[in-house]
TrEMBL record, chain A:
Assigned keywords, A-Z: ATP-binding, Cytochrome c-type biogenesis, Membrane, Nucleotide-binding, Translocase, Transport
Transmembrane segments: none
Naturally occurring in which organism (per UniProt): Dyella lipolytica
Domain of life: Bacteria
Name under which the protein is recorded: Cytochrome c biogenesis heme-transporting ATPase CcmA
Length: 211, 218
């Protein structure tokens, strides 16, 4: 553990561990995340990266250990509105267009100042696809629609579960660009990956999960 | 509100699914005269009950799907992380579901009742009973769908759990119809339905939210 700093960290885990039917999935883990920090969660398939993510969103309860959000125990109602979660299931309605999906997300979460749905779609390289139903898009394009949500919704913490999956080279650069901008604006992010990620904006903190 | 608008847009995009319960109700009610014989007096006596039960069964067809697609595509997780009360959003989802499945059924109810020679003065009572009974079923059904959301093959379990809760709804609605048909005051059973509906409107979304949180916590 780092020596105590005056500011309370955005997110702090103390001896966090999780078991599924008495089999340990991961842990105990200790880490802290401050505003303006990026943390990579690394681990092989089945090492519990997604489970950890779901715990951090408050959708799953950890069995042992503590999770503190701004110094207080984390629960879904305390951090809602400050966390954006992008998981394997993108949360897009396949019958609706990217534009409609993003409008709905804004309706739920509110929107950042000066952000426009069409600008965000252009930024992720989907100009011209605004009105196509999402089911007609490719897996990578769907991912990009979900990434556009990150641009539109205000949040202090991004939880990105495998954001690079299904993306091509420009898509990976896009994710890195989004992360760098988010960090530069004082946001924090937790990103899971298999470990093959190049990040340019300084050396991120790494959490290693292993079986 | 965003939830309501999105779900209604979705229902409209998939309006083929909305037709199915209506078609089902139409087929079932038109089969009754064939099975029982076209005797006016008999049909008149059973018309109210047949239409009522058919409507409720037709609603069950679509009930199972209330939260399924949202769970499958991860939309529900996004709803849970939104800075708004989950119960309110689920209440809106149930309202959208009711508008998309029950309202078309209520619209064709007078037609079906007419086909079975239900006396026309009773038809307003039938509509009133349906207007109270169908949202009640949507709300109670929503809670049960949420409870069974985490399990595989939830359809069977859902039907078993819903049956005992359907019975009082059918009894009160049919009681009002029978009373109206005999020219007796029918307000008491309708009032019971109304009271149950008010209670369900308040409690069902809260129960739904709690049940879905448990379902996803696994």
């Amino acid at each position: 553990m780092t020596p105590a700093t005056p500011a309370t960290p955005l997110l702090e885990a103390r001896a966090l561990s999780f078991h599924r039917q008495d089999e340990p999935v991961f842990g105990p883990l200790d880490f802290r995340l401050d505003a303006g920090e990026l943390t990579l969660i690394e681990g092989d398939n089945g090492s519990g990266k997604t489970t950890l993510m779901r715990i951090l969103t408050g959708l799953l309860r950890p069995e042992e250990g503590e999770l503190l959000w701004r110094g207080e125990p984390l629960s879904w109602d305390r951090c809602s509105g400050e966390v954006v979660f992008l998981g394997h299931q993108l949360g897009l309605k396949s019958e609706l267009s990217p534009r409609e999906n993003l409008r709905f997300a804004i309706g739920l979460h509110g929107s950042r100042e000066h952000s426009q749905v069409d600008d965000a779609l252009a930024r992720v390289g989907l100009a011209g696809f605004e009105n196509e139903p999402v089911r007609k898009l490719s897996a990578g394009q769907k991912k990009r629609v979900a990434l556009a949500r990150l641009l539109l919704i205000p949040a202090a913490l991004w939880l990105l579960d495998e954001p690079y999956a299904n993306l091509d080279r420009t898509g990976i650069e896009l994710v890195n660009g989004l992360l760098e901008a988010h960090i530069a604006h004082g946001g924090a992010a937790l990103v899971t990956s298999h470990g093959a990620v190049q990040f340019h904006g300084g050396e991120p903190q790494r959490i290693r999960l292993h079986d | 509100m965003a939830v309501l608008r999105r779900d209604l847009t979705l229902a409209w995009r998939q309006r083929g699914d909305m037709v199915l319960p209506v078609l089902y109700a139409l087929i079932v009610t038109s089969l009754f005269p064939f099975a029982l014989g076209p005797e006016d007096a008999l049909l008149r006596r059973i018309a109210g009950g047949v239409v009522l039960v058919t409507m409720l069964l037709a609603m069950l067809l679509a009930l199972d799907a209330m939260f399924r697609s949202d769970i499958e595509d991860g939309s529900l997780e996004q709803l849970m992380l939104a800075p708004q009360p989950l119960a309110l959003m689920l209440g809106m989802k149930i309202l959208a579901h009711w508008l998309a499945t029950a309202v078309p059924l209520i619209v064709i109810a007078p037609l079906l009742a007419g086909m079975l020679h239900l006396p026309s003065p009773v038809i307003p009572v039938l509509l009133l009973a349906l207007l109270l009974a169908t949202p009640l079923l949507s709300l109670v059904g929503g809670v049960l769908v949420a409870l069974t959301a985490g399990t595989r093959r939830s359809g069977m379990l859902l039907a078993l759990m819903l049956l005992p809760l359907c019975v009082p709804v059918v009894i009160f609605a049919a009681g009002a119809l029978a009373a109206a048909q005999e020219g007796l005051p029918w307000i008491a059973p309708i009032a019971w339905l109304g009271a149950a509906l008010v209670m369900a409107v308040v409690l069902a979304p809260l129960a739904c939210a709690a049940a879905l949180r448990i379902a996803l916590d696994s």
